[in-house]
Please model this.
Amino acid sequence: MSKTRTFYQCQTCGHASPKWLGKCPDCGNWNSFVEEKSFGGKQSLSVQSPGKTEPVPLHSIEGISEERTPTGIKEFDRVLGGGVVRGSVILVGGDPGIGKSTLLLQTFLRLSDRSGKLLYVSGEESPQQIKMRADRLPASTGDIILLPETSLEGILDAAKKLSPEAMVIDSIQTVYTQELLSAPGSVGQVRECAAKLMMFAKRSGIPVFIVGHVTKEGTIAGPRVLEHIVDTVLYFEGDRGHSYRILRTIKNRFGSTNEIGIFEMSDAGLREVANPSELFLSERPRNVSGSTVVASLEGTRPLMVEIQALVTQTNFGMPRRTSIGVDFNRVNLLLAILEKRAGMHLGGMDVFVNVVGGLKIVEPAVDLGIITTIASSFREVPVDPGIFVFGEIGLSGEIRAVAQAEARLREGAKIGFKKAVIPAGNAEKLEGAEGLEIIKVKSIEECIEAVLR
Model:
C-alpha cells in the first residue's frame, strides 16, 4: 500500500508546507492553509509525459486555419474573437448570481441549433433546476444532454461516449478526481481537474467551457495556474443595482484581449445590447452641472459614457473623496492638477465622481471628462449637452493625444453629438471630422474655457 502523506497547502497560491502556518510566506495571505492528503508524496499525476516527442523545425510545420463556430450571440462571439475554436478551453468567472450559468446555458441553446449534440455538466444544480431556467429563455432546448456529476472520471467517460460538439463544466470547484484525497475546490483538485480537462479538449477537439467561482477579492478561486492552463479567460461583471452585465476578455490565445460584450439581464435571460452608447445615455439629465459625456474605448469598441461629479462644501475637517467606476488615485491626481494649474480651490470641498451605468473605465482618455465634470459642478455651470470630450492629462496640465480618435468621433456623430473637444495632437492628424465641430485644446485652462462658457 502506498503511504499517505499529510501536508498543508495555501488555497490562494498553492504553497505547500509540512505544518500549518497562519500567514503564507509566498503570497502573504492569512489563514489560507488547509490540510491536504496525497499518496506516496505525489500531488499531481497529470504532469507525467504520455510518450516521447521529437523536436521539429518551425519552417517545416504546416499552418492550419482556426475554424470558428459562431455561438449565435454576437456579443459573446466578440469577446471570443469571432466564435468558438475547436479544442479550446474557456474559463468564465464572476460573482455568485451574476449570470454565468444563464449565459452559458443560453449560449448552448443557440449553439445546439447549428452544431448538434452538446453536453452540460452540472455539479451544483439538479436537472430539474436547469430545465426550469431553460424554459424561461427564448430558445428551444435543442440537443443538450444534462449530466449531474462531480467525478472527473465519470465526466470524461460520458464525454468520450457521447462525443459532443462542446461541453460545459459548472463549476470547476465542485469537480474532483479520485487520484487525490483532498476535498473538491482545493488547490490540488482544481489544478488537477483543469489540467485533465485541457488535455481532453486538445486530444478530442471538443471545446470545453469551465465556470469558475471568484474570491472576495474578485479573482477566480483556486491556484493562479488555472488561468495559465486555459486558452481564454472571461470575467462576467456587473453591479447588483443595475441590470447591465459586462463580459470582459482577460486572456485570449485566439483573439484580442480587453474586448467586452454588454448584456442586459431580464426575466427572459440575457439580452444583447447592440448599441450600448445609446443605452448608457438614455437617462442623461440636460442642463445640469456636473455631467459630461466621454468617448471611451473598450478593446476595439468605442463607448459614449456619462461621468457625473458632485462638488460640495465639506462639513468636516477632512474633505471626502469618492470615485465609482474610475481609479480613486487617478481622481486625486486630477484634483491636484485642477488646484495647481486651473486655480480651483478644492481643498475644502467634498468631491464625488461616478461613471453612470456601472461601468469601470481604466483608460487615461477619460481624464478630460473627469476634469470637465468636476469643474462644471464646482462652478455650477452645465456643459452643453451636444458636446463630448476625450483626452489624457499630464501633470503640467497639458492635454495629450489618445489612440483611435477617429473611431471615437464616429461613435459620437452616430449618437447625435454636434461638437467634440479633443487634444490638439489628435486634431492635427484627423482625416475627417465626421460632420462634427472640432474644438482642439492644449491645456486644461483652454478646455474649461471652451466648455464652460
